[in-house]
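Schema walk-through. Below, the input block comes first and the output block second. Nothing else is stored per chain. Lengths vary across the set, and this one has 487 residues.
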Amino acid sequence: MDIQNLSIDTIRKSLIAKKFSALDLTKTYLARLKKIDPKIKAFITITDNLALKTATSLDQKIAAGKKIGKLAGSLMAIKDNFMTEGTRSTAGSQVLKDYIPPYSSTLYNKLLAEDSIPIGKTNTDAFTFGASTENSGFFITKNPWNLNLVPGGSSGGSAAALSANLCTFALGTDTGGSIRQPASLCSVTGIKPTYGRNSRFGITSMASSFDTPGAFAKTAADLALVSQVMAGVDCRDATSSLLPVPDYPKLLLQTKLKGLKIGLAHQYFADPINPAVKKAVQQSATVFEKQGAKLVDISLPNSRLALAVYYILVPCEISANMARFDGIRFGSSVKDTKDLLSHYLETRGKYMEDELKRRILIGTYALSAGYFDAYYMKAAKVRTLIKNEFINAYKKVDLILAPTSPTPAWPIGQKVDDPLQMYLADIYTCPVNVAGLPALALPCGFTADNLPVGFQLIGNYWTEDSLFSAGYQYQQLTDYHLSNPKL
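--- output ---
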């Protein structure tokens, strides 16, 4: 069975028509996963028994003539920072290597309720701190397009799994670009929704005012369907929005490309962007222009400050959130220490990964007496300037088009010992998170070395429907999203 190009809707309709069973489809995916994943190492935990059990239950529901969910039969890969009751949830760190949560995240439960089938938990930089998945406490995930290169991060496992056709869709989180950047490096489609659109309940916290759960799919149409299921208010997350959720799949043709105003900010096309990336992204803008869209030059000068703002505010929030992982309430623990302080120091020294320690130290320093005003408060004020700059831009344009990564995927090990170079991988994605805006990442070409290139459409607050519509129409005009790596 050719599983590489089965859409969510096709799978559901095929199950209803009894062209194949959910169990047979799941076995096919699991067989491919067990063959391919040793090469790319996308999964920390393969939930084969759970997948087979869920598929069997779905087949029984179909046989009984019962109504099935919107995502029936679709194989779901789950980033390992999502809590999954009864299934190991490590957040990619040795701190939680044996942690089995007694509850599940809201989003995972929503997707299960629509009859998706969980195939496994994917690798991530430890506690999602990273841009390459090299900071995982378990192993490095490899890019399916070139096994010597990184897949991006922190949701690199999810992006690689989907790119390698080991699932139908995958879950991720985007705190500074962790969905959009690996989506572009692996040639898949990914959405970072407006902050508050999706519940954060049951997802390990990195930076609570930035964390935004979202998803990956092969197409904007599939992603619209998954996102429509995920979105909505949750009484267990006070930051989730009360605003009603549009029916994204029914609105895929609502945005008329003719007359659409698309902003191009020159700051996003200056150094350090790779020439091949710049060319591909500019060509994607031309695709819209040929359909009647108007390209508008805009300026977002404060966006250049977003990376600095991000790497002050986010470590500060990390410093607070990581305090709970002390080896007593959560995580592994060093035994036989002489006193409580020694227990904290030795446990964290042994189990916490280097990047995790680095960000805690940066955040604690920035929050300390004498430095709070100089760093945290100043960064918070600049965050407001960046947000207001985007708000003003949307008075002139409907969407903003920009690169997601300044370069294609890079060699494993190239940046891992140079944190500043690694942080620069987020230079085009961080402004969106600082402002809390939605953005859709889409494949838009390949370099001469056949490495994927992607771009992002950035929307105004709560305009995911417009992003999916523009992305869907772009993918009707191009075929980059249909390409598959040779594995």
